[in-house]
Amino acid sequence: METKQIITNLISQVPESKLDTILAFVKFILLEEENVNNSLLSEPSLAKDWMSKEEDTAWQNL
Questions:
Q1: Fewer CB within 10 A of the terminal residue: the chain, N end or C end?
Q2: Model pTM?
Q3: 24: domain range?
C-alpha cells in the first residue's frame, strides 16, 4: 500500500476532536521551508480552549 493511502486510511479513523491537531501539523510540514509564523499553526488547537464559556468568564474582569 502506498504511503499516501495509509495516511488517508489512518486519518479516516481519527476522532473529529483530533483533526485540528493533524491539520496544524500538516500545515507545518508543508510550510516548514518557508518563513512562517509558527504560533499561527497552533491556533486551531488552542481555539477549542479559547472559545469556551470558562475562558470568557476568566477574562471578563480584565
A1: C
A2: 0.50
A3: 17-59
Specify if 5 maps to a domain.
Answer: no
Rounded to 5°, the CA angle 10-33-18 comes to: 30
Number of domain units in the chain: 1
Q: Select the more confidently predicted residue: 49 or 20.
A: 20
Instruction: State the burial class of residue 51 (Cβ atoms within 10 Å of its Cβ: 0-12, 13-18, 19+).
Output: exposed
Q: Give the dihedral of Cα atoms 40, 44, 49, 52; nearest 10 deg.
A: 110
Report the percent of the chain where pLDDT is more than 90: 27
**Locus of grid cell 491539520:** 23
Residue 51, pLDDT score:
75
Contacts of 18 (CB under 8 A, 6+ apart): none
